[in-house]
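This section describes the prediction task in plain terms. A model, or a person checking by hand, is given the sequence of a single protein chain and must write out its three-dimensional structure as a string of tokens. No templates, partner chains or ligands are provided. The sample shown here is typical of the held-out split.
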Amino acid sequence: MFIEIIDVIISGLINGSVYALMAVGLTLIYGVSKAFNFAYGSFYSMGGYIAFLLFGISFFNNYLIVFCLAAPVLLIFGFFIEKLLVAPLRKRDDWEVKVMMITLGLALFLDNSYQVVFGARMKSLPSILEGSFEMGEFILSYQDVVIFIFSLGGILIFRWFLNNTRTGMSVRAVAQNPAGAQIVGIPKEFVFAATFAISTVMVGMGGILLAQKYFITPAGGWDILVKAWVITAFGGMGSIKGGLYAAFIVGMLEAFVGWYFGMTWTLIALFAVLLTTLAVRPQGLMGKWG
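The expected answer:
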């Protein structure tokens, strides 16, 4: 029993670290633009499929190469999608609602495109590192350790970017006061596009990491979208620190509920905790009243 509980805790921490990497991107979009991206889960699937294509080419059968090639592709894709589909809507009334509708349409388009190109059958990626650490009955795979390290590394790089680069500080300024940021000369339109692009990279990287443990499917991103939304609302809309805490809480809760009751109960448990939290503290763990 004790070994099982340790395994569940480790599984929760590993999944929570990847959820944190992905949920922070969605939190960032909402914090800057106050709009919700319904295509976020489809970008998760895109990361997995890009890695699947690269691994099909023998020269690119190394995860470091895959990450280095996939990241700029996702960054450019996110940047141009924002410029082509989202930016024109900001000149209209109720543009936040229109953004939700157009990103929902984009999600359906991407998911159906995945099915046409890759087929409906599940795809998988090879393990990032074979082998495991064993101590008695306790077994920890090297793959899980690397996934945890990569996820935390991505979060730390993101934090460094926000605090130490001109673009990152511009993102923070626009999130705190859009009008004031524009007055002092910060290019708000570029910040919106950069935020969308960076969040696309973060969720795509999460898709590559989790594709080693779970299968890639055309509609598999919807489950991630729901979890990312729960984490964002649970932590506090627009609060990056709250999103990080909420991601690990959700990861642990998911692991324990799946272990004790079965995986079919995990989403029910997540929404139950979310609704309870919002009933007691509507602004989330670390959100603020608007």
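For orientation: Residues 230 and 271 are 7 Å apart (CA to CA).
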